[in-house]
Amino acid sequence: MAMRLLLDPGHAPARRVTEAAALPQALQALRLQSGDLVLPSPVNAHDHGYGIRTLDFGAIDDALEVWIPGLRLRPRTDPYLEALVAFGRLAKTGVGATMHCHNSLNVDRLADEAGAVMRAAGDIGIRLALSCPLLDHDAWAYDGGPQRLKPFLSPGDWQALAGTIPDYAPIRTQLAAVEAVAAANTSPLVDVQYGPIGPQWCSNALLEAIADASAAHGRRIHMHLLESPRQRLWLDRRFPEGVVNYLDKIGFLSSRLAVAHGVQLRPDELELLAERGVQLVSNPSANLRLRSGIASIASAVALGGPAFAIGLDGTGFDDDQDLWREMRLLYLLHGGRSLTRQLPAGSLFDAATRVGRRVVNASNAEDFTIVDYRALMAEALFDDIDEAEILLTRMSARLAKGLVVADREVMREGKLTGIDFDAALSELLAQARADLPRLEKQRPLVNALSEATRAYYDTWHGIS
User: Which UniProt keywords apply (predicted)?
Assistant: First the structure.
């Protein structure tokens, strides 16, 4: 059984290779075996770098707005270690690049935390796009902020929570912090981007300033857009002309922009995003787990809509950060019901590789994942079945054997070459458990805030 070189999955079959000299130069020194399959590494085009996953700190899946307060229970840990474990988890699955939407809301800590995150990515060896958070509207409630939730909280809970309402830095200060992070970045494997959290959490002035800064600096933007039904309803109230039309009017839409989720986007909005060259990152597991719905990916493709990529959003179908299963889920959700598959395998792999690389600003990257194809095909009777279909039907993270990023062997036989993952995870868990007394004290307040949020949005009308 020869090695297989699958450079254009879904569009062309693998080439059978028997000698290392026939492989790309970056792979020739590796000890590849007969039965291995080599393909371009997939990109996780939207994530949040949870070293401690959300369920582990008690943020149980719920409707998005009710789930968000649970993020307050995220334990206080070393940002380097948190990122090291999160990125290590991805690299062990064969993912060579990730879009990291940083979670800090303290602009004074951004440079130090970003530096720690970039160092973690470098120690592991993956490519990193770092989306620096920008917002100036509080996330408690879309239509009016914390005061809207006050009637649904006890006086004691309100008093305890009111003291946690943040003061947001001026727009100029926030944008300057992003530029400071970018100026400190000297790695060719890291791209710093503007990260407005979402239009519902940004003032018009902030969105317009980001559009201007992106055009002036040529810097990319990565933003959540129209994830949940409640966001759709609120943004329609706030922008009668439509939020996507507003963003276009201010020059926000361009090929430098990627938007995550897009579950509630309408056909006319998808067409406009496509016209402007915007990329749409689909997160099917997260959207199902947080009850936001299913994005119209296949319809968008049929309409000539925006190029799409794939992201895990810190979740995954089995809560395991397995991008291969995420690809399978998206493939099955959007296959359609006709005699011809609505979303072909080639489009799926283009999303995971070519478009994903655009999102992380690494279009020219040549990174490779090595898969144990012998194990995938151990019981097959034919040797000529389309490799892309095999991968989309059976591939999982445990069958990723190797990862090469920028000519560096990052993972070999399922083990990371740059760090001791198990030791890093053990240390991170120890730090998280040391924070348990604080988390246990905060937990009743967080639960109260979640239920107040549910009660508040229950008063809204027009959401099915």
Answer: Hydrolase
Q: What is the CATH number of the domain that holds 346?
A: 3.20.20.140
0.70 exceeded by pTM:
yes
Q: How far apart are CA 350 and CA 337, in angstroms?
A: 22
Q: Residues in the chain, how many? A: 464
Asked if residue 441 belongs to a domain, the reply is yes
382 within domain boundaries = no
Q: Of all helices (H) and strands (E), which one includes residue 394? A: helix 387-394
- On whether the CB atoms of residues 109 and 76 are closer than 8 A, the answer is no
CA distances from 120 to 89, 116, 156, 208 (A): 12, 6, 41, 32
Range of the domain at 171: 40-367+414-458
Chain position carrying tokens 């759709």:
232
Is residue 396 one of the residues assigned to a domain? no
Q: What is the pLDDT of residues 332-380, one digit of tens each?
A: 999 999 999 999 999 999 999 999 999 999 999 999 999 999 999 999 9
Identify whether the C-beta of residue 108 lies closer than 8 Å to the C-beta of residue 171.
Answer: no
